[in-house]
Structures are given as structure tokens and as C-alpha cells.
Specification:
Elements: E1 8-9, H1 47-51, H2 57-78, H3 88-111, E2 123-129, H4 148-155, E3 158-160, E4 163-164, H5 169-178, H6 208-212, E5 218-224, E6 243-247, E7 272-276, E8 282-289, H7 297-310, E9 326-331, H8 343-347, H9 355-380, E10 387-393, H10 423-426, E11 427-428, E12 430-433, E13 444-446, E14 450-451, H11 455-462, H12 480-487, E15 501-507, E16 512-517, E17 520-525, H13 565-568, H14 570-576, E18 594-598, H15 614-628, H16 643-646
Parallel strand pairs: 1-8, 2-9, 2-10, 3-13, 4-14, 5-6, 5-9
Antiparallel strand pairs: 3-12, 4-11, 6-7, 7-8, 10-12, 15-16, 16-17, 17-18
């Protein structure tokens, strides 16, 4: 079928997306395993909100009144010396009271929130934030950015304190979906897949949604893909997702949905809805035109996710079988640049003095409301107790643009940011909520190593699938067993962490590699594309409190003003590199510069110990070398040499352009 590139509207299919969406319409969330008092939010509550999770107020008042009358009657009869035989009048009254009490209690039970019991194959919801800093969520303790809904989720979850990703978007997402280190299939390094790039995630890689379909999961991707779209075979519905609504590329404007990667890429529209037929052949590829011009992407993505959830009836009135479980990934843009917050969200953060930080907080406020809205939808269809919820960021917060523009994110107490191998670039917020029969009164903190590739086998096991049965060599490690032990109350010290080391990256092209083993972290070559010591200097000891928490001083959100020409050339370095078939990709070809940090006490990575602990340095280097020997050639794209026109239609819409891409 030859496709038309004319922009069409999908308003008739998604009329509930955002037309009725307001901040005050988000109900409170009362997780089945969290007390109603768990979240103290300063959010406006509607009458409907108050009713949710608290039963019917009138019924409760009537019940209390009846109980009081019965108690008063009982007390009055206790004071009498002789208990007379009850008359038929009294018997009738008592019988009527009994009926009222039983009816009232029954109504209260019927009208109170009820959740579906635990399922063999639970629903799985993964929410991905884009460039969210370690210190940009409320539950981490900073307090200037309020995230009540994410915080409420954290209170009933396992909070991963050492969750590691790749330094940049595309490699991180590749690792999560494949369960393998990106350098094994040519996606190592701190480079994303840009608009106009010919390459994408290797088509021979087996992805998580494909594995879950073996257990009849319905699979959805809402939001950002960012793993290539030069050919239709690279796009989400050809890689295991039943449905896709979002952006193919990695960076678009929030209101106009235009690609945002500077003049080299050019502008182009990127917002699509894809649905394959039952035979798996794409027939419904629609360029989404906003039914309301200038609609914020978070609203679009959130309302699409809510629509899918609310249309997923768990069980009908006649007790029919439950539908297939769903695996839904909601991949938000927030708070990735460009920083384009909604006015109402900026106003909610007026307490933050620093303007850049205030705008960043507004972007995160929007993200938080999205999480609350989706979680509320799960509660509405009584599916909270049958849904595993995962929340994470794909890499560290992005502190500044190549031009020197501050973005207002914070990775404190860590050094560095996105695109670096310092902790601030690869250690991110993450949590998992696994439904339990028993109530959780607070979060469970897990301080063991966890890499983003671990989500693949862990999710498979939680879905009652065996990751070891796959014909793949996974780097990801299954944490489902240790999670269940922690939730059952087993003390952390009695549970052995399944992972003892993490390879953060191996990129001989740009001369950078890093590994964490035990308490030590080794960085070989450059911590980033350039000398970030000028941009992210060693953190002043005064900015770190004795107990390890950061001080609440907005001045520490500022980065060094020393902007060099090398920084301005940052984007040019990435886009102008051309593949060199003779390039040595061995660790031996990299520089011998090393940095060794003891993360057990030096989380700011301030003191290099490599010269003092040469034995430990050599051991970590030896482990890196083992992985380096299996590194696949890095796939280096030609970027925008000749694709600018071919990659977009006459309507200025980004679309696959390689061979056979004219057929849908």
C-alpha cells in the first residue's frame, strides 16, 4: 500500500485525550498497600477526590448514629436492677435497627474502592523520564521540587539507590529493551541517534516487548522511541509493540512537535500513531495533528495512556475471563530540552528563586502530574493491585546546553551530568512497585548495583517467563528474587546482591570507558567528550552535609561559567564524525589515563586513588579488557550529509526514507 503523507487529524479517535484534562481533575491516589495518610500533597481536591478511598460519608455518618443509639440503649438498660422481657414493639425496633446496620455495612463495602486480586501475569507499566536529575524528585530529599505523586509511588515501592544507565538516551533505551550492553551491538558511547541518521538499534536484537508477547501481553509504547526510524523495520510496531503513539526521534518541541536538534538537522514534524493489522502489517500510520493547536506533549501522552487503560476492562459484569495483560511504556519528553514549561506549572513553583531551576521544576511538575493521572486511571479500573509500576530516568540530568545555557537540573550530591561517566551522568532515580498482599507503610531502599539492562530479565521473571530460556546472552541480571525477599521483610544485610560489577561504557572512538566493581569505580580515558572539569568542577565540600544530604542552596545548581570553544563545538564533534574502518576498537588503543574513585565515601568523585591503589586499578582494567574483546564495531552514522531532504516529505514531516519505505 502506498501511503499518503498528508497530515490528518485523529481527533475522532482520541477525543478524550486532553479536552477535559485539567490539573484539578486529577484525583487523589490511595494505593491498596499504602495508608491514605501517606501523601501530604498541597493539591486542590475535588469532592470526587475526597470520596475516593474513603467510602461514602453519609453512609458512615448514619452508621455512627445507629451505633451510638444502640450503645445508649445498652447503657440505660445496664443501670436497671431487673431486665424486663422485651415487648414485641422492642423486638421490631431491634430487628429494624439490625437490618439498617447490615444494609449500611454492605453498601459501604460495595461502594468502597476494590482492587483486582494479584494476577499470574501482572500488568506492567514503565514510566521513563528523560534527563531527570538524581536530585530532581522529592523523595530524594532536596525538597525544592515537589513531586507528590511520584513520592507517593515511592512510599509503596522499592527505591533503587544505585540504578545505573548509559550516559545518553538512545544507548540507555537500547540496554533496557535488549537486556544487553549497547557496545555489544554497535551502540556504545555517549551518542544518541539523531534525525536524519541512517542507523538504529540492530534489527537482529530481540526486544523485551517481543519476549512478553510470548505470554500474550498487549504491548504499547506511548511517547519517545529514539532507537532509529530510517526504515519502517526500525520503528516500534515492527519491534514488538502492538501500538505506538509518540515521536520517532529524540528531541522535539513540546507544543509544536518539531524536531529540536539545531540547524544541521532542520525542523520537521514528529508525532505519529501506528497500529498494525492482526497480521502484523502496518496499515494505520497516521501523522497526528493536534485537535487543539499547541497541546503540550505530556498532556497528549498522558491522556493517550489513560484512554488505553480505561478502555481495558479487567472483568465484565458477568464475570467473563480477563483480557490479556498489558505491557505499557510511557516514555515522556520531560524534562529534556527545550525547556518549555506550561505557565500554570511555572506558577506552581514560584517558591524557587533561581529562574532556570524554577522552569526545570515546572517541567518536572508536569511529569509528576502525568504519573498521578496514569496511576489514578489504574485505580479507577481496579487494577492497581495487578500492575507492576516502574519509574526511572534514562540518564542523569542535563545541566547545560553546548552554548552555555543553564538548564536548571541537579544531580547533587554527584559530580557531572548527562554525557559524562561521572555519577551525575549515569546514576539516576528509579523505583519499582510490586503488588503485595500485605500493606507497605514505607519504601524499601535497595543499595545494590542495578544496571538498566537488568530490567529485561527482571520484568520477564515477574511476568512468569524464564529469561534463561532465551537464545540470547544477556548482560542484564534478574533481580526479581531479591526484590521479593526485601518485600517479605528480609533484612538487606541478609540478602546477597546478584550483581557485583557494572560496565558503564566502552567507547574507543571517543576514548572513554568505565566500570564499577564493589566500592571502586574506574574511568579510562576521558570522563566525557571534552574536559568537563571546567564545566563540572569538583564539588565544594561545604555543599555536602555531614549526613550525605545536599544543602538546600540554589547557588549550587549553577555550573561553571567558563565556557570554552570546545564546548560550543560539542554538537559539531558528534555530527561530523565519520566511520573509520581502520579505527582500532580495542581498549589497548585508548589512552592510559585512569581515574579510580572509592564510592563508599567519595560519591563526589573528588579524589583519584589510581596512583595509590594500583592493584585495584589493574584488576578493574582487566575486567574491562574482557568486555572490550567482545565489543562490536561502533555503528557511526553519516548524520545529515544527504538525508535532510530524503528524510522528510513535502509537508516537512519526518518519516522513514530508506529502501521499501514507500510501502506502509
Amino acid at each position: 500500500m502506498t501511503r499518503s503523507f498528508k497530515i490528518t487529524s485523529t481527533k475522532t479517535k482520541t477525543d478524550r485525550r486532553h479536552s477535559s484534562y485539567t490539573r484539578s481533575s486529577i484525583p487523589s491516589i490511595t494505593f491498596s498497600n499504602v495508608p491514605n495518610t501517606a501523601c501530604q500533597c498541597d493539591c486542590q481536591m475535588t469532592e470526587e477526590d475526597v470520596a475516593i478511598g474513603n467510602g461514602n460519608k453519609d453512609i458512615q455518618e448514619n452508621t455512627n448514629k445507629i451505633e451510638k443509639e444502640i450503645q445508649e440503649s445498652f447503657e440505660s438498660h445496664k443501670t436497671k436492677k431487673r431486665i424486663p422481657m422485651p415487648s414485641i414493639h422492642h423486638v421490631l425496633i431491634a430487628f429494624i435497627v439490625l437490618i439498617v446496620v447490615v444494609t449500611t455495612v454492605s453498601l459501604a463495602i460495595v461502594l468502597s474502592p476494590k482492587q483486582e486480586p494479584l494476577r499470574t501475569h501482572p500488568n506492567i507499566l514503565v514510566v521513563i523520564a528523560d534527563d531527570l536529575g538524581y536530585n530532581d524528585v522529592g523523595y530524594q530529599g532536596q525538597g525544592d521540587i515537589k513531586t507528590p505523586y511520584i513520592d507517593m509511588l515511592a512510599r509503596s515501592s522499592i527505591v533503587l539507590e544505585r540504578h545505573y544507565t548509559q550516559p545518553m538516551c538512545s544507548p540507555s533505551r537500547a540496554a533496557m529493551f535488549t537486556g544487553r550492553y549497547p557496545f555489544r551491538y554497535g551502540m556504545g558511547g555517549s551518542r544518541a541517534i539523531y534525525y536524519g541518521s541512517r542507523h538504529g538499534l540492530d534489527l537482529s536484537e530481540y526486544l523485551l516487548p517481543q519476549a512478553l508477547k510470548k505470554a500474550d501481553y498487549k504491548t504499547y509504547l506511548i511517547g519517545k522511541w529514539h532507537l532509529g526510524f530510517a526504515d519502517w523495520e526500525m520503528t516500534p510496531t515492527r519491534r514488538g509493540f502492538d501500538y505506538f503513539y509518540g515521536t520517532y526521534g529524540g528531541s522535539t518541541t513540546y507544543l509544536t512537535h518539531q524536531s529540536y536538534e539545531g540547524p544541521r538537522a532542520g525542523n520537521g514534524y514528529d508525532l505519529f500513531e501506528d497500529e498494525p493489522t492482526d497480521e502484523g502489517v502496518r496499515v494505520n500510520h497516521t501523522v497526528v495533528e493536534d485537535s487543539e493547536p499547541g497541546t503540550f506533549s505530556e498532556l497528549l501522552f498522558t491522556e493517550k495512556a489513560v484512554q488505553i487503560i480505561e478502555d481495558s476492562v479487567i472483568v465484565d459484569e458477568e464475570g467473563a475471563d480477563k483480557p490479556n495483560p498489558f505491557f505499557m511504556v510511557v516514555s515522556y519528553q520531560n524534562p529534556h530540552a527545550p525547556i518549555e514549561p506550561m505557565k500554570e506549572d511555572v506558577e506552581r513553583n514560584e517558591h524557587i528563586e533561581n529562574e532556570n531551576r524554577r522552569k526545570m521544576a515546572a517541567m518536572i511538575t508536569s511529569l509528576d502530574y502525568g504519573v498521578g493521572r496514569i496511576t489514578s486511571a489504574l485505580e479507577k479500573i481496579q487494577a492497581l493491585n495487578s500492575t507492576i509500576i516502574i519509574f526511572l530516568s534514562d540518564n542523569g540530568g542535563h545541566l547545560m546546553m553546548p552554548t552555555g545555557e543553564s538548564l536548571g537540573s541537579s544531580n547533587l550530591p554527584f559530580r557531572g551530568a548527562k554525557c559524562t561517566l561521572y555519577e551525575g551522568g549515569v546514576r539516576t532515580p528509579a523505583l519499582i512497585k510490586i503488588p503485595q498482599e500485605e500493606m507497605m507503610n514505607s519504601s524499601v531502599k535497595y543499595d545494590g548495583l542495578f544496571h538498566i539492562s537488568d530490567w529485561f530479565p527482571t520484568i520477564m521473571s515477574l511476568a512468569q517467563l524464564d529469561p534463561n530460556a532465551l537464545d540470547r546472552d544477556l548482560d542484564g541480571i534478574d533481580h526479581s528474587e531479591i526484590f521479593q525477599k526485601l518485600l517479605s521483610g528480609t533484612p538487606r544485610k541478609e540478602v546477597k546482591a546478584p550483581r557485583d560489577h557494572v560496565v558503564l561504557d566502552i567507547d574507543p572512538v571517543f576514548d572513554q570507558a568505565a566500570i564499577i566493581q564493589g566500592k571502586y569505580k574506574l574511568i579510562v580515558g576521558k570522563p566525557a567528550f571534552m574536559d568537563f572539569n571546567e564545566v563540572y568542577p569538583l564539588i565544594n565540600e561545604e555543599s555536602i552535609a555531614k549526613d550525605g544530604d545536599v544543602v538546600k542552596d540554589s547557588s549550587h545548581y549553577q555550573v561553571s561559567p567558563n565556557i570554552t570553544q570546545q564546548m560550543v563545538d560539542y554538537g559539531r564533534i558528534q555530527t561530523e564524525y565519520k566511520a573509520d574502518p581502520n579505527k582500532c576498537l580495542s581498549l589497548d588503543c585508548m589512552s592510559k589515563e585512569t581515574l579510580l574513585f572509592d564510592l563508599s565515601w567519595d560519591v563526589t568523585e573528588s579524589i583519584d586513588l589510581s596512583w595509590r591503589f594500583s592493584t585495584d586499578t589493574d584488576q578493574l582494567y582487566k575486567t574491562l579488557r574482557t568486555y572490550s574483546n567482545s565489543t562490536s564495531p561502533l555503528v557511526q552514522p553519516q548524520y545529515f550529509e544527504d538525508q535532510n531532504k530524503a528524510a522528510k516529505t513535502e509537508d516537512n514531516v519526518w518519516t522513514p526514507w530508506l529502501s521499501n519505505s514507500t510501502e506502509v
